[in-house]
Design brief:
Elements (H helix, E strand, L loop, with lengths): L6 E8 L14 E8 L9 H5 L2 H11 L7 E5 L6 H13 L6 E8 L1 E3 L5 E4 L5 E3 H11 L4 E8 L4 H6 L7 E6 L12 H11 L11 E3 H16 L4 E4 L8 E4 L11 E5 L4 E10 L2 E6 L7 E5 L4 E2 L11 E6 L2 E11 L2 E6 L7 E4 L3 E3 L4 H21 L5
Parallel strand pairs: 2-3, 4-8, 8-9
Antiparallel strand pairs: 1-2, 1-4, 5-6, 6-7, 9-11, 10-12, 13-14, 13-17, 14-15, 15-16, 18-19, 18-22, 19-20, 20-21
Helix pairs in contact: 3-4, 6-7
């Protein structure tokens, strides 16, 4: 599992019944946020503190009209335990009124328990379970519509749990990854989330001047697949449909703006997104965390990004897992990322990047030996992690 040394939990509660979702009354919003980037075992560097996107999200909401008095933002030691986070969340929910709108955002370290249920971590690594989040919302939230977004490993558990509910609250869920996979340590999801809230024209996929939830979800998925070789998850329940509008765009895209490209450096091609185009020059933002993160390049140097060739669904392959090559099968694919199922049922299905997959090109004897080694490795793993699927 990739480790993400930043944690953010935020809830935005919009009062009233807005006539148009693009005209959300931020002046009547409540914000609940928890941000931990300074972990006991992994202290945050000055660069990490300066690059926080959780604080950027808080500043955006305040600039949109949310009263500072209604922004509850617990940071680092203030969010030391699950109990302190959950108690403050309950107190915030208790202050809501009928007609309020809930927006919950969490990013950070996540995991699953022995039964495969997702949870998010407090600073002491205590479990703030997805089930408890829905329990508190259903019990204490007085409104009827909610958006839940999560940016951490196994965050797709939110979508799974939302799909089980048929109560009075309708949910729209966004997560950085599904409920069986690790997530990136970058802020890609948060940046894409902000892009949608701001109404950036790149998120308006059909170019009609409006950003809708389904476009928001698709944009987030595309950005994560391109930048981090992972696939996000989303879900909509009840009356909260995917066609709801969340923002209006203020301008049209320039030619090549927002295009995914590759730019050569000394030894390879670096993935980037065009953020500005002007007179034969492109300003690009690189996906890899390398310097410079942004620069101007000649347009001729940037070639269109082409995802790696997709392997056929059903193909037998070998997948790298913690240094071992395990037999698996391709279930589906999206923009160079493949969903696979291991032959050994003790491993969860997951999305993997192309570099972790190779063809099965060995003799029958070698393949049987590799399968036997995989079985032994699996049994050892199961003994080390009792009860873990």
């Amino acid at each position: 599992m990739k480790t993400f040394y930043g944690l953010l939990a935020a809830a935005v509660l919009f009062s009233g019944a807005p006539a148009r979702a693009s005209e959300i009354d931020y002046s009547r919003a409540w914000v609940f946020a928890v941000g931990i980037i300074d972990w006991p075992a992994f202290p945050a560097s000055p660069e990490q503190k300066a690059g926080r996107r959780d604080r950027e999200l808080m500043e955006f909401l305040a600039a949109k009209g949310v009263s500072r008095e209604r922004i509850v933002f617990l940071t680092d030691r203030q969010a030391s335990t699950t109990a302190s986070i959950r108690d403050e969340f309950r107190r915030t929910l208790a202050r809501t009124k009928p007609g309020d709108f809930l927006f919950l955002y969490y990013a950070g370290e996540g995991d699953v328990d022995a039964r495969g249920r997702s949870y998010f971590m407090a600073r002491d690594r205590g479990a703030w379970t997805v089930q408890s989040i829905f329990h508190d919302i259903e019990r204490d939230f007085k409104g009827a519509r909610a958006i839940l977004a999560a940016d951490c490993c196994y965050s797709g558990g939110l979508a799974v749990e939302a799909g089980k509910l048929f109560g009075r609250v309708s949910y729209f869920v966004l997560s950085s990854v599904d409920n069986t996979s690790g997530s990136t340590g970058e802020w890609t999801f948060t940046e894409a989330l902000l892009a949608g809230l701001r109404g950036e024209p790149a998120v308006d996929l059909n170019r009609d001047g409006r950003v809708k939830f389904e476009e928001w979800a698709e944009y987030i998925q595309s950005e994560l697949a391109f930048n981090d070789d992972q696939i996000s998850a989303s879900a909509a329940t009840g009356i909260f449909g995917p066609g709801a509008e969340i923002a209006r765009t203020s301008r049209k895209l320039a030619p090549r703006e927002s295009e995914h490209v590759e730019v050569p450096d000394a030894s390879s091609w670096r993935r980037a997104r065009v953020i500005e185009a002007r007179r034969g020059r492109l300003k690009v933002r690189y996906s890899q965390k390398r310097q410079p993160r942004e620069e101007w390049v000649d347009a001729a140097r940037a070639r269109a990004f082409l995802p790696p060739p997709m392997r056929p669904i059903g193909q037998k392959v070998l997948v790298e897992y913690e240094g071992k090559w395990l037999p698996a099968v391709i279930l589906k694919h999206f923009r160079g990322v493949h969903r696979i199922r291991y032959d050994d049922p003790s491993y969860l299905d997951e999305w993997v990047e192309a570099k972790r997959i190779k063809d099965v090109k060995f003799s029958g004897l070698f393949t049987r030996a590799a399968a036997k080694m995989s079985w032994v490795f699996s049994r050892t793993r199961m003994m080390l992690l009792p009860g873990r699927k």
